[in-house]
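Task: encode each sequence below as structure tokens.

Item 1
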Amino acid sequence: MQEDELDCDNVRLVAEVNEDLTKLLNYKVYKRRWFILLVICILNSSNAMLWLSFAPVADQTAKYFELSLDQVNWLSLIFLVVAIPVGFGTTWMLDTLGLRTSLILSSWLNMTGSILRFLSILDNIPVGLRNYPLLMAGQTLCALAQPLVLLSPTKLAAIWFPENQRATANMIASMSNPLGILFANIFSPMIVGSKEKIPQLLGIYTIPAAIVCLLATVGIRNRVPPTPPSNSALASSSEPFLAGVKLLVRNKPYMILLTCFGAGIGIFTSFSTLLQQILCVKGYSNDLAGLCGALFVVFGILGAFLLGLYVDRTKKFIEVTKISFCLAALASIAFAVVSQMRIQGIAVAVVSSLFGMFGFAIYPISMELAVECSYPIGEATSAGLIFISGPNPCDGSFLLCWRLPFCDLFPHGIQKTQRRSSGNQQPGH
């Protein structure tokens, strides 16, 4: 009897060892994942440059095209308007048609939009289309590409990268968007010294859009890697789109994260679009506005990089998100106060840096946390609903007042639900 029990134990042990070995043999990472990451980074940066290319030089743009400042603002705000209806289709496309199709489509939309922007200044274009109509059409095409670009990092990290590199990969891809905003804040004022330089600005910003379109079309060959990099990658997009949305709506931690982070996106977009106009009415120069925008992004990328590495090692998504939310809320309130004062350039620059450091750090970590607490629902679906929630309330002053109370709710409402990285549970558990 004892010999039979020993034989059974040995069989179980051998079976467990064989199962572990099979998993190790079946999981593999590929070097091409870094190329896809590079494509997303360039595409993300290019799209962000096209989004905010006119914001740092709003006054010169208005003079060149003979527009009002409100019309110039709509060249950026159209991205927020388009994001809401298009975002739902984007989440379905990423989880259903795959990353390759989405990246190629977004790169073509981005390049076509940039070309239309450049064509808007040509004299041989019909009068009815010249200048603002064609310029807005180009911005709209670029806006259609933005949800596909911004939601790609979580999908890429889930299906191409191993678990110990996911947060870092998501951070690198996500932070390429603010890097493009940094380029726009630096290069747009440098290029446009006067309104006659607007055509040169449009031509220069078309180049990276064309390059990344070529890279995406020719270089990305596979929808998914031949072999998954981890166990959880096998369950990626395991829930149908509509069923996944219903599960997310009933997921309390996810809904709290959506509410808080959506408000944060609204503040960020308002800050990025209107920074020059907020500061210049108080007597600050375009150069200082560009500097504050650059500091906002540089310190944000630094904070996101450091916290991304920390979260990859410790998996403390929730703790890092709680602290960053509260500090970012305080920094945004400080900016609202300091920006209303005159001759406080240093204080404005310092507060912008702190706002960026704590605010930008939230973005990639919250996207990863959204996937963690909603697993096994598709990555694009869970990240997409959060992205869509941001542009809805576009008034930054309104969001500034209501974000802090939600940050107080956030630490109490969200629980330890890191389902994907905690044991790689099976779907439905």
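Item 2
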Amino acid sequence: MFLVVFFCYFALLCTQSTASLLTDEDDAMAWYERFNLEAQEVWYQSTEASWTYATNITSQTQDAKINASLVEADFNLKAAANASKFAWKNFRNATLRRLFNTVTDVGSDALGRKSKDKLLQLRSLEAEMEKIYSKGKVCNNTNTCFPLNPDLTNILATSRNHDDLLWAWKGWRNNVGRAEKEKFTEFVKLLNEASVENGYKNAAEDWISSYEMPVESFKQLVTTLYFELKPLYEQLHTYVRKKLMVKYGEDKFPKTRHIPAHLTGNMWAQTWSNVLDLVQPYNKTSVDVTPSMKAKGYNAMKMFNISEEFFTSLGLKKMPAKFWEKSLITKPANRSVVCHASAWDFYNQADFRIKMCTVVNMEDLITVHHEMGHVQYYLQYKDLPVGFRRGANPGFHEAVGDVLALSASTPSHLKEIGLLDNADEDYGLCCHLSHLM
């Protein structure tokens, strides 16, 4: 009903000739305010359906998620069409221009303008790949099967047996990567089509647009940063490779001189902190507080409570009651879930959650702080119009999470919360390697 009211209330916009765009900014603001109210409801319903699927992967929840996303897409496309009846690019009010820009740029929903069937295919592929990824397992010779979280993740992090590491790394890619390959190829094709429909050359240009700079300028910026970091990375890479050669033998390393990904302690080789014990150059106790956490009886709730205390000590907000009521912080035993840690904003100014299959170790303690950093950001902008309830750009949102997480992982803070016995003045110097990894 609310959709009917919303679009009929502005029937004038639906019949307005494209040759005579509306210019009254007061009318435009009134239109946006009504859109804002309706968008909160539609986006909440879609996000709730996505959450239900991510925390209980079944055919029924998958269908419900897809259907809700199509309802949201229909709403977004109609709203974009109505917003385009205004000459919003010429508005004097810069804030209003930005708000209308967020309405008219509908992302991958734009594929629905071209073909509703293709949009359905895109959403179905997305859900199907998420299911394959989340349910994927690797089975050994005794037919014992291991899911990614926590089993394979733990093997990559803690095993020091080369063959076991290679088995877990290759097995995951053989079972999950191959099952997704054709779907992913079709997904990319459709995503590019959606971006073209949305006015971009391809999906890459669409994503880069979030940074509000010309594509070539963005590429140049990234290239400059890459070459600035390259000398430091090459030194770090060379040092770590040498240490790992000592552990596993030079015959396990190719002549290309790269580090085999399965030896980095992480399924994606994106962080190397889990091999710190093999490469730490200083004769000091490791900053890894996992043993201390286990000795002190930490569980997932304790880790989340510690994280909240960190944020409130900075003068930031406590987690809302619904956060504790509705978040999923441990892996359920009786159903399949998407274990990849993520923070969620439900667009109703009251409901914010984290989904995470928390394991008691330092890596997950830092991840908890990272994800709660996202929620802190949500809480700060929750009262803004829906078009502004997002990061300044995708990288900025991640930067907020990482800055706060890194602050929580310093030796001085770990000592303050009772997880590290000593934090010598030179401890930070010796632990820089850990942070670089």
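Check on item 2: The first strand starts at residue 137 and ends at 139. The chain has 20 helices and four strands.
End of task.
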